[in-house]
Fold this protein.
Amino acid sequence: MAKNNNYQNRVIKNVLGLSAEKLNYDRAKREWEYRGEVLDHGPIKEQIPKPVECQFCGHKIRYGYRLHNNINHKVVEVGSECIGNFLEITPSIASNLDADKRAARKRRKNEQLKMRRDLYNSALAEVRKVRIAVCAIDNCQKDRNYILSVGNNAATLYSALASGEIDRLAEKYGVILDQQKINVFVEEAGKLKPVDRITVF
């Protein structure tokens, strides 16, 4: 029971603090409106540098349901527990909330895929510089065979870059690489299981 009281007291304090109405919690609650906006911040353990918190209760959240204040125009993100303080959760509303959450998850997945594709293409462009230099020289068949096999997918590109082999070839053939483009790709690809690298880039 104490836990529920602590939760409720925290919510009341923060709602009054962020609302135009500073004394009456029930009146303050009526200032806030949910307009169907949800943000997917990803699994809590993957949120960097720290997890997002519900602005009313302070719990760590993956999905942020955005509430708009119709008087002072503030916008806050709350978790699935706190959204129930502002909406009467009928089966229809529960279904809408679930659809909004699914749309947020899909949106995040698409944004992540685009970001990863951009990282892959930027790193691949650096490898192509090395490929051009290697292929311009006739008597380097071994290096040519190796460089032509790199970058068919994100897994082979990651292996070549992480092993330092591309850096070695770049130095050998006098190619200057943009290490930042390489490093951000290697860092992102390194977070994934080897079997997933092909499909998520």
Q: What stands out?
A: The two ends are 48 Å apart (CA to CA). The chain has two domains: 2-87, 108-196.
